[in-house]
Specification:
CATH topology of the domain at 233-348: Immunoglobulin-like
Shape: elongated
Strand order of the largest sheet: 1-2-9-6-7
Number of strands: 11
Distance between the termini: 77 Å
Number of helices: 10
Strand content: 15-25%
Length: 352
């Protein structure tokens, strides 16, 4: 039995916490936790927290209960929304954890949850990304808490291999090169350093230099991505010659900003693999597509540039011959176009 002096009770009342004794709800939570009834444990601990009377061990057990409940749910159904709520609570309460053993449990739990979500979804992209977020969280927690990250690293490595293998297979059977690049880009979001994937992506980008990549999908998740958002400028290079100190060719840009704008080829910015940049020089031959009424019908017509600019209408295109000059050793990676309103378009080249 836990005996309390009057002064202790007053202090505990002011703090809203009993640090040495456990109330009924917390004790029930401990029992459920030992029995593997994790959802029941979570409910009991939540009720204990609402009353504000918890022990020194509370948050460690509370976090373990949430981690275990999420892990249990992931084994049955990796797309269960209950998992997301549990993991949110783990992160919310992690700063109150005192024991290294609890951090170990969280790291391994998040690793198992993430791996289950990656493996069990047949490349359902939303849950693949969710799974990798959990895997990366596990690694981050292990690093911050100075606990063993071996299991988390192994789980992420295995999950990456699965996703890359699926992406390569899907890209190989894709109906065209655009679909193939899109599939590979999905995998690149979670496996940017995978050599096999980089090789395949490089190869398909060379084939797609002259193709508009309009994927028209948002990216789910927090990672930066090279995927193309259609709501901007979509670039292609139907003619492209890459030399040791220059690049020359023809750029074709599709306006998906929703507004009629001026296209200025000199704003095209080429970026190297190491982050160096070179701006385009307009060398002539520019025209933009407009619709003219001919015999009562709209007919696409090429309208020449006025000087060094073209009139780029919404959902229409402009073409222009351009060149870039740079120092030897500059390895072109992509060309980007950005207007004054920060609408943007980007085209990756790949290398032969």
């Amino acid at each position: 039995m836990c005996k309390k002096t009057v002064s202790f009770l007053v202090l505990a009342g002011l703090l809203g916490v009993f640090t040495g004794c456990k109330g009924k709800n917390e004790s029930n939570g401990d029992t459920f936790l030992k029995e593997g009834k994790y959802r029941n444990a979570v409910n009991s601990y939540t009720n204990a927290l609402k009353k504000g009377k918890v022990s020194n061990d509370f948050y460690d057990n509370f976090v373990v209960a949430y981690t275990s409940a999420a892990k249990q749910a992931a084994k049955k159904n990796p797309t269960d929304e209950y998992i997301r709520g549990c993991v949110e609570q783990v992160h919310k309460n992690l700063s109150n954890v005192k024991k290294a053993a609890t951090l170990d449990s969280v790291v391994l739990g998040l690793s198992e949850i993430g791996a289950a979500q990656v493996k069990g979804n047949g490349f359902d992209y939303e849950f693949v990304l969710q799974g990798f977020r959990h895997l990366d969280s596990a690694l981050s927690i292990a690093k911050r808490g100075n606990v063993n990250a071996g299991g988390a690293k192994a789980a992420r490595s295995e999950s990456e291999k699965i996703i890359v293998a699926q992406a390569l297979e899907s890209a190989g059977g894709a109906e065209n090169e655009v679909a193939a690049e899109y599939t590979l880009l999905e995998a690149e979001v979670v496996a940017p350093n995978n050599e096999e994937l980089k090789k395949a992506l490089n190869s398909i980008r060379v084939k797609n230099r002259g193709t508009w990549l309009i994927f028209a999908e948002d990216i789910i998740g927090q990672r930066a991505s090279r995927m193309v958002d259609k709501y901007g400028y979509v670039l292609a290079f139907p003619i492209l010659n890459i030399g040791a100190t220059d690049v020359a060719g023809e750029v074709s840009v599709w306006n998906s900003t929703g507004n009629n704008v001026a296209f200025e080829p000199s704003k095209l910015r080429m970026v190297s693999k190491s982050g160096e940049e070179a701006f385009a020089k307009y060398v002539g031959g520019g025209h933009c597509t407009i619709d003219k009424v001919v015999n009562g019908l709209f007919k696409p017509t090429n309208q020449p540039f006025k000087g060094s600019e073209g009139e780029l209408r919404s959902e229409k295109t402009c073409n222009a011959k351009v060149s870039f000059s740079f120092a030897k050793g500059f390895e072109p990676d992509y060309v980007e176009y950005k207007d004054k309103d920060n609408n943007i378009g980007r085209k990756y080249f790949g290398h032969r």
